[in-house]
Amino acid sequence: MAIKILVPIPSAENAKKVIPQVAQLAKTMDAKVTLFHACYAGVGAFAGEGSPETIKMEEAQERKFCETYLAKAADDLKAQGLKVDWVCKDGLPARQIIGFAQEKKYDLIVMGTLGAHDMF
User: Fold this and answer.
1) Considering 33, 65, 74, 78, which has the largest number of Cβ atoms within 10 A of its Cβ?
2) Rounded-to-integer distance, Cα 3 and Cα 103, Å
3) pLDDT tens digit string along 3-48?
4) CA dist list (Å): 24 to 18, 56, 64, 77
5) How far apart are CA 66 and CA 44, in angstroms?
6) The model's pTM
7) Sequence-ordered strand ranges (E) for the chain
8) Could you give the CA distance from residue 108 to residue 86 in angstroms, rounded to a whole number?
9) Mapping DSSP to helix (H, G, I), strand (E, B) and coil, where does residue 113 land?
10) CA proximity to 39, closest of 14, 56, 18, 20
11) Tell me, what's the pLDDT at 25?
12) Angle, CA 41 vertex, CA 110 and CA 22 arms, to 5°
């Protein structure tokens, strides 16, 4: 049975750091990789932050990131011979990552860091 790796991608900057490391790991483990993004721009609406127009614009930007960047990153990894797909879910990132990983029975979650040096 193949190892399944879930890779939450919060931003393009983060992806540039973590994806090369994941590619190497997936090749070593003959693993299937899922790139994952949680769209959460509209959550501020519940706290009264932002106008409806602003929130809709942020949601559209999040969706565009998911549909374009993750699809391209997945295609690039497939070109390296890896088994890759991508998923975008709406909601709070931590809840979506954990829920999706449990539901789909992922073996490993690989996340990059934001702002840390000498780490992916």
Assistant:
1) 33
2) 15
3) 999 999 988 888 888 999 999 999 999 999 999 998 876 555 455 5
4) 10, 37, 27, 10
5) 19
6) 0.83
7) 4-8, 32-39, 83-90, 108-109
8) 15
9) coil
10) 56
11) 95
12) 15
